[in-house]
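Q: What structure does this chain adopt?
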Amino acid sequence: MKREFYVLIEQDEDGFLVGEVPALRGCYAQGRSVDELLSNIREVIELCLEDEAEQEWPQFVGVQKVVI
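A:
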């Protein structure tokens, strides 16, 4: 069964792209390009899911934009 995950992507001060999967605690990766980041985050997601049966993962609700 295939699962889908949202990846939040930011650029750090060194120019690297950093991705986080909010639905999986501690699931982060980085890359120099979007393609490299997504390849790396897929590997990290697989590692996080190996322990899925032993952990209860939070439910990702969504992302909202706030204008001030």
